[in-house]
Amino acid sequence: MNDIVIDIEQVSKRYALSHQHRPDSLKSWLRSMANRLARNDDQPKDEEFWALNDISLQIRQGECLALIGKNGSGKSTLLKILSRIIPPTRGQIRVRGRVASLLEVGTGFHPELTGRENVFLNGAMLGCPERLIRQRFDAIADFSGVERFLDTPVKHYSSGMYVRLAYAVAAHVNADILVIDEVLAVGDAEFQKKCMEHLQTHLRTGITVIMVSHNLHAIRTIASNIAWIQGGQLFESGTVGSDILQRFEQT
Amino acid sequence: MTPIDTTSAVIPHSWRTIDGHAPTLPAYCRELYQYREVAYVLIRRDLIVRFRQTYFGLAWLLFKPLMLMLAMSFAFGFLAGFEKNHAAPYPLIIFCGVIPWYFFSNAVPDSMNSLLGHIHIIQKTYFPRAILPIAAVAVDAIEFGVAWLLFALGCLWFGYLPGWQIALFPLFFAQLIALCVVIGLLLSVVNVQFRDIGNLIPFLLTIGFFVTPAGYTLTRIPQHWQTLYALNPLVGIIEGMRWSLLNGMDGFPLIAVASSLTITVVMGIIAVRHFLATDADLVDLA
């Protein structure tokens, strides 16, 4: 089908769980190299951990996909790969359109910069030209509800204020794909409602959303599809109308 | 209700592939260009922070190089007695050495620390990471560029007129900036992996000052040591700047310039290859 905008093909991500501390200084690195040269094989070998294992998923334009699964199941790792924060060990993701990511609290904010400066910095990082941000600055400030603190360095912001501003920027950069990792849980009920309404409006205009959430109510409200990730693998996927959510709730 | 932008999302038809492969240099450069506004924001912000809330404000841009030039002229020209038999006024000779050195010794640590200093941003959003070391050098380079205004004032003061050689000055200027970017690309990545380097480099720079012709000229070095001495890439750049701005003073430093260019290019190739290979893995390495 040609309305696919994200094509995740057999993506795997491996981490090495080292049982000795990592060589984070030249000294320990040299020592481990010396040990290796001396064939000193009594060191414990690094254990492999596959955070993601052979995940394949396709997401169509206008879809709102919610990733569900227990903590540590690999949902956030998948979003990080999709946002190009970390590379996949195997496989590839093909993306069509501009991606704006909101990963954890304070996506890409510089703590020393003011809220206003961060709006421009964040906008630039999301690939939005400065004049566009300038045009929409008032809308962003208004949406965030932190107008009064725009000239305060964001290190003094509360986590709620952080998220509101970050979401406001991401919402106004005309991204084609929004990647949202559990951020909505931080804002208060009023802001969450505002975000949900905003997402619903944008979904109707053809934007695509991938979100991670533990809030099943929110998922029922806006998601169109569900992907259940377990142990780094795609356990089940289907539409929001199927019984996946009920079964997930029972586990 | 908040006004919501409902511009419909137009899906571009080009696919972008995200995989574990290192990007090619042209693809990476295209991306750097696409994200250039990130650099503008960072550079502008650093400049504002540097000069906002300072009593002298922008006057610092000229005051700092003036003090450096006077102090070095005093130390090397007067105390060490190097101020003899020179075709150009000694403070101008000193200026051509001390100011490039000052830029280098600031730009290298600044760019080295740029990735580590922004690690919390790198962990949360994507942009080509080379922007950070490049922007760090750019901020210092702007200050460095403005400092040459003082050189022009010095020429007026001493009634000294540079010759045709000045036409080649921009090349040496560009090479110095390229050298700083190259070292910055290399060290910034290493710094994420091995934090030791953060202690080592300031120490090396302290030593570097004495093996760089900042407060004296290349002619002070005995002839048979000059080739070895020219392995310091700053020698060719600084002596080249002196040659271009001070009427071909002491003749064209051919060996030093050739050595400096070679070292810059070789380091450049290593740095770019290493950066392209590690860029995507930076967050996993940190």
State the gist of this model.
Chain A has helices at 26-37, 75-82, 115-125, 130-144, 159-171, 189-204, 216-222, 244-250, and strands at residues 4-17, 47-60, 64-68, 90-96, 99-103, 177-181, 208-212, 225-230, 233-239. With 251 residues, chain A is of the alpha/beta class. β4 of chain A pairs antiparallel with β1 (15-18) of chain B.
Q: How far is the N terminus from the C terminus of chain A?
A: 34 Å
Which whole number gives the mean pLDDT of chain A? 85
Beta-strand segment tally of chain B: 1
Largest interface (CB within 8 Å) is between:
A-B, 66 and 46 residues
Instruction: Name the poorly predicted regions of chain A.
Output: none
> What is the average per-residue confidence, as pLDDT of chain B, rounded to a whole number?
87
Oligomer: heterodimer
| SSE topology string of chain B | EHHHHHHHHHHHHH
Q: What form of chain A results from the Cα inertia axes?
A: globular
Rg calculated over all Cα atoms of chain B: 22 Å
Class by SSE composition of chain B:
mainly alpha
Q: Provide the helix percentage of chain A.
A: 25-40%
What characteristic shape of chain B results from the CA principal axes? globular
- Approximately how much beta-strand content do the residues of chain B carry? under 5%
Characterise the protein shown here.
The complex is a heterodimer of chains A (251) and B (286). In chain A, helix 3 crosses helix 5 (159-171) and helix 4 (130-144) crosses helix 5. In chain A, strands 5-6-7-3-8-9 form a six-stranded mixed sheet, with helices on both faces. Helix content of chain A is 35%, strand content 27%. Chain A is globular, with a radius of gyration of 21 Å. Chain A has helices spanning 26-37, 75-82, 115-125, 130-144, 159-171, 189-204, 216-222, 244-250; strands at residues 4-17, 47-60, 64-68, 90-96, 99-103, 177-181, 208-212, 225-230, 233-239. Chain A has 251 residues and is α/β, with parallel strands linked by helices. With 286 residues, chain B is an all-alpha fold. Chain B has one domain (22-285). Chain B has 13 helices and one strand; from the N terminus they run E-H-H-H-H-H-H-H-H-H-H-H-H-H. Chain B has helices at 25-34, 36-51, 60-79, 90-112, 114-117, 119-122, 131-158, 169-193, 197-210, 226-229, 233-245, 254-278, 282-285; one strand spanning 15-18. In chain B, helix 3 (60-79) packs across helix 4, helix 8 runs antiparallel to helix 11 and helix 8 (169-193) runs parallel beside helix 12 (254-278). Strand 4 (90-96) of chain A pairs antiparallel with strand 1 (15-18) of chain B, so a sheet runs across the interface.
